[in-house]
Amino acid sequence: MPREPLEAILLVGGKGTRLRPLTLSAPKPLLPTAGVPFLRHQFARAAAAGITHVVLATSYRAEMFREAFGDGSALGLSIDYVYEEVPLGTGGGIRNAASLLHSGPDDPVVILNGDILSGHDLGAQLDVHRKAEAAVTLHLVEVADPAAFGCVPTDPAGRVTAFLEKTPDPVTNRINAGCYVFNRSVIDAIPAGRVVSVERETFPGLIAGGQTVMGYVETAYWLDLGTPAAFVQGSSDLVQGNLASP
Q1: Is 166 assigned a catalytic role?
Q2: Which entry of 15, 28, 131, 166 is annotated as an active-site residue?
Q3: Residues 74-101, buried b or exposed e (16+ Cβ, 10 A)?
Q4: Cα dihedral angle (89, 205, 144, 10), rounded to 10 degrees?
Q5: What is the pTM of this model?
Q6: How many Cβ atoms are within 10 Å of 35's Cβ, its own excluded?
Q7: Which of 103, 191, 204, 215 has minimal Cβ neighbours within 10 Å of its Cβ?
Q8: H or E stretch at 125
Q9: Residue 203 near residue 150, CB atoms below 8 Å
Q10: By three-state DSSP, how is residue 63 classified?
């Protein structure tokens, strides 16, 4: 478990085009999953890991998030909201949300994608980050077909050596699982006010600059809820208790 209260940024600005028509009336992270909006499951795992403050990086139908969760007190969290009038990408969204963080430059900040269902041990990922004194630590999972995802090779010590976004000839079956731990100073170094991709710009830039980017590999439950079939599967798995306990 983390030694002190933590902050997180939740990226929820996408339009969920692969889930249309379901997402024409609501953002993907608010779709009912096992009886409640999907983000409630994200919030529960975040709180269990010691996260106390969450900033939601919104864009598409942004007002619906505040209507659903308010200030977060009912969930045992403090929730703030930041809006992107023009979508800024993953890195730009993280940078835009940083204005509402309270953490210092050396503090870890957890970044969560709003459409990933995971049972991995976030506390263990944070421990890897701290022990390695890393700039960023990525949750990695092994999949049968890595060509559809960001491919992330590591050295024997677990240090990320490259970030190969959706390459047709993967060098490893380990992929980016969509949960990161950033040092706050690394977030603040992302260019503000423009589109930035962490996958194509931030991570490769850190690696090229010699900074420590770690991979935390775990075999716990993991599912990208981007398609109707995956969404149904994730909801079923939640009902049946197939995820690891927080």
Answers
A1: yes
A2: 166
A3: ebebbbbbbebeeebbbbbbbbbbbebb
A4: -40
A5: 0.90
A6: 9
A7: 191
A8: helix 122-132
A9: no
A10: helix
